[in-house]
């Protein structure tokens, strides 16, 4: 029997396309307007990295919650959605469009009005797609300073914080009336337009904002995981994830029959078994490239 603590994450969502071999779903579109804020993230994937990596992340603020994630997750899901729609019509798996490089696979949701934080990953538990994560209520002890500075086009004020084993310096703008910010950060009298730790391992800077359509209900991943959410205690989440890194797709291999493993991926000459092995190696290697998490404790 499969250990219920053996879970598998989606990096960068490519292997979810194996699911159409097992069942099909109907995708419908439901879009509402949201406030989308774009943050450039500069970070050191390893503590001893000689140079920073760069990624673009977005903070989508809605009426009752906000969601922070890698922008390429949104792009990747959109591409996967189109591939899946074509497969529904033709019965042929076509992966001719390369998916973008997703640097951060987590999502952070903050629920209004208490700003309870939910940290999740869209993962595979064997053959079952789930949203896996934990919830926590953070009471940030901000120290607001008198110092002000222009951050891009925004007039910002300084605040400092100790969190996750790092000392953070933040700049917030009261002209943007949201008590929110990138990652889990929130609680200042204005949107955080820049925040970085004192060692500059992580730096989030607001680069722009616009109105956008909320296509989350049209998400391929959400359609698969709808109603299948597993929230556990944070310590258990962390332990389970560490175990997962050792062999990302072990449970998936164990649940597939020899007959299915020997089948050929539609539209390719690759066996299902080889497809899974290739995905598993890519996921495992991705973790070796990043041993410098935002939260160190």
TrEMBL record:
Against InterPro entries, the record matches this protein to: GLPGLI (IPR005901)
Q: Which domain of life is it from?
A: Bacteria
Pfam families according to UniProt:
Porph_ging
Q: What is this protein called?
A: GLPGLI family protein
């Amino acid at each position: 029997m499969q250990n219920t603590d053996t879970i598998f994450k989606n990096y960068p969502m490519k292997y979810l396309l194996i699911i159409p071999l097992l069942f099909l779903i109907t995708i419908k579109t439901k879009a509402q307007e949201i406030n989308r804020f774009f943050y450039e993230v500069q970070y050191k994937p390893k503590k001893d990295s000689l140079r920073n990596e760069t990624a673009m992340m977005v903070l989508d603020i809605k009426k009752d919650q906000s969601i922070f994630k890698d922008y390429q997750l949104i792009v990747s899901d959109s591409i996967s959605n189109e591939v899946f729609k074509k497969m529904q019509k033709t019965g042929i798996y076509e992966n001719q469009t390369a998916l973008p490089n997703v640097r951060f696979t987590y999502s952070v949701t903050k629920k209004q009005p208490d700003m309870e934080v939910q940290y999740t990953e869209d993962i595979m538990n064997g053959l079952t797609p789930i949203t896996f994560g934990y919830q926590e209520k953070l009471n940030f002890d901000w120290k607001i300073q008198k110092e002000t500075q222009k951050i891009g086009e925004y007039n910002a004020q300084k605040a400092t914080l100790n969190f996750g084993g790092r000392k953070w310096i933040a700049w917030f703008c009261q002209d943007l009336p949201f008590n929110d910010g990138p990652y889990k950060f929130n609680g200042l009298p204005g949107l955080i337009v820049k925040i970085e730790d004192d060692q500059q391992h992580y730096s989030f800077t607001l680069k722009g904002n616009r109105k956008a359509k909320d296509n989350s209900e049209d998400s391929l991943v959400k359609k698969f995981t709808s109603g299948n959410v597993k929230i556990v205690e944070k310590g258990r989440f962390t332990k389970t994830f560490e175990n997962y890194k050792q062999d990302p797709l072990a449970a998936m291999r164990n649940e597939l029959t020899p007959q299915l493993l020997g089948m050929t991926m539609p539209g390719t000459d690759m066996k299902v078994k080889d497809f899974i092995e290739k995905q598993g190696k890519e996921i495992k290697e991705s973790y070796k490239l990043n041993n410098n998490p935002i939260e160190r404790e």
